[in-house]
């Protein structure tokens, strides 16, 4: 990879972050399923509390067998927190009471008695009671907070699906109007409908990502899907673009691909196109480069496509530079992304062939 192509995160750091994200998502999904199965304060919640209390007691017996100096209450803290998180206040308090009594009776000398001979054990039991109350309160608070966030997420997804449905209907209506009104101007009609199709395809990608945006590689695959996959290569980090950024990049790639198919590398059998991405701080750099195509030269008049390419990224603190090299068009684009924008590596060699994508 050349010096100007420097990824925002190294491949190792990005892969580790991706692993952490996957693990976090998996844990969240498991907890969400359990919350739906265990209504707070229900019979299932108290049954879950009994299971947690018994499990913690057995674990404490095993710890005492390994080391008699082990804390007699250590296994009950996570049991109290987990029960309150899933079952609510009542089940959490039940585990705390059962755990405290079990430890008092079975693990504190004299064993199998509710007498306490050591002052430290009394302090430990009192501290366990206060900590358990805190854990029950915190667990129940986070349970209610998680439930509210899940409800809001479901409402948001429903709204996104409804808006997407309305958008598709409006685009279909616009498509029909353009087809009728410009039936005598087929070239203009075709150009407008192609741009509409590019926006619609990217809208579909954003919808699939639950409104979070679309990855650069997915946008490129959508726009370049009609061409032979082996002729197009993408390199660099696969950056997740927010919706507005994704739509703009989709339009730019559509213009570049259309012009290349008409006059550039994609218009001849042996032509090649590469799209290289890199991140420097919060600035995304994209380099479109055509090779082994027919000779190109700057057009005498700037059409809509060139004006779009030159101005579209100004709103994101970016810009474009278009070079008509003897080997093919080169377009350098850059734009400033929001802080914390996520990227994923494309492989050890930093590049992958694009596969055609159904739209």
What can you see in these coordinates?
This protein starts with 10 loop residues before the first helix and ends in a 6-residue tail after the last strand. 30% of the residues are buried. It folds into 2 domains: 173 residues, Histidine kinase-like ATPase, C-terminal domain (Heat Shock Protein 90, 2-Layer Sandwich); 113 residues, no CATH class. The chain has 359 residues and is α+β, with helices and mostly antiparallel strands. It is built from 9 helices and 9 strands. A hairpin with a 2-residue loop joins strand 6 and strand 7.
Give the DSSP E fraction (strand runs of 2 or more residues): 5-15%
List how many beta strands DSSP finds. 9
Number of helices: 9
Tell me the count of domains.
Answer: 2
Rounded mean pLDDT is: 79
The separation of the N and C termini measures 32 Å
Please provide the ordered H/E string of secondary-structure elements.
HHHHHHEHEEHEEHEEEE
Give the C-alpha Rg. 30 Å
Tell me the name of the CATH class of the largest domain: Alpha Beta
Low-confidence stretches: 1-11, 346-359
Give me the CATH superfamily of the largest domain.
Histidine kinase-like ATPase, C-terminal domain
**CATH-defined topology of the largest domain:** Heat Shock Protein 90
Write the layout of secondary structure elements.
Elements: H1 11-37, H2 43-66, H3 76-87, H4 89-107, H5 119-181, H6 186-208, E1 214-215, H7 216-224, E2 232-235, E3 238-241, H8 243-263, E4 272-280, E5 283-291, H9 304-311, E6 319-325, E7 328-336, E8 343-344, E9 351-353
Parallel strand pairs: 2-4
Antiparallel strand pairs: 1-3, 2-9, 3-8, 4-5, 5-7, 6-7
């Amino acid at each position: 990879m050349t010096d100007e192509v420097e990824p925002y995160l190294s491949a190792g750091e990005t892969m580790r972050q991706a692993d952490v994200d996957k693990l976090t998502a998996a844990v969240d999904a498991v907890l969400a399923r359990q919350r739906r199965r265990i209504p707070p304060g229900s019979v299932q919640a108290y049954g879950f509390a009994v299971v947690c209390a018994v499990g913690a007691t057995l674990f404490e017996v095993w710890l005492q067998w390994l080391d008699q100096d082990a804390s007699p209450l250590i296994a009950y803290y996570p049991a109290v927190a987990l029960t309150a998180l899933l079952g609510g206040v009542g089940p959490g308090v039940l585990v705390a009471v059962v755990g405290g009594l079990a430890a008092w009776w079975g693990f504190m000398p004299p064993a199998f008695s509710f007498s306490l001979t050591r002052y430290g054990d009394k302090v430990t039991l009192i501290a366990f009671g206060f900590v358990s109350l805190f854990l029950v309160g915190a667990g129940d608070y986070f349970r209610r907070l998680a439930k509210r966030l899940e409800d809001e997420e479901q409402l948001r997804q429903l709204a996104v699906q409804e808006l997407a449905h309305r958008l598709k209907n409006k685009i279909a209506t616009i498509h029909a109007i353009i087809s009728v009104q410009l039936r005598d101007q087929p070239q203009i009609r075709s150009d407008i409908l192609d741009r509409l199709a590019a926006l619609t395809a990217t809208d579909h990608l954003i919808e699939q990502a639950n409104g979070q945006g679309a990855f650069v590689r997915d946008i490129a695959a959508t726009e370049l899907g009609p061409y032979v996959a082996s002729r197009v290569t993408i390199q660099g980090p696969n950056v997740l673009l927010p919706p507005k950024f994704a739509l703009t990049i989709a339009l730019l790639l559509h213009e570049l691909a259309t012009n290349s198919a008409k006059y550039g590398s994609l218009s001849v059998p042996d032509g090649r196109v590469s799209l290289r991405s890199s991140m420097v701080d919060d600035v995304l750099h994209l380099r479109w480069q055509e090779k082994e195509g027919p000779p190109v030269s700057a057009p005498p008049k700037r059409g809509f496509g060139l004006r779009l390419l030159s101005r579209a990224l100004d709103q994101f603190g970016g810009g474009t530079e278009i070079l008509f090299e003897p080997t093919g068009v080169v377009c350098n684009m850059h734009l400033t992304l929001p802080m914390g924008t996520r990227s994923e590596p494309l492989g050890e060699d930093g590049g992958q062939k694009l596969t055609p994508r159904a739209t």
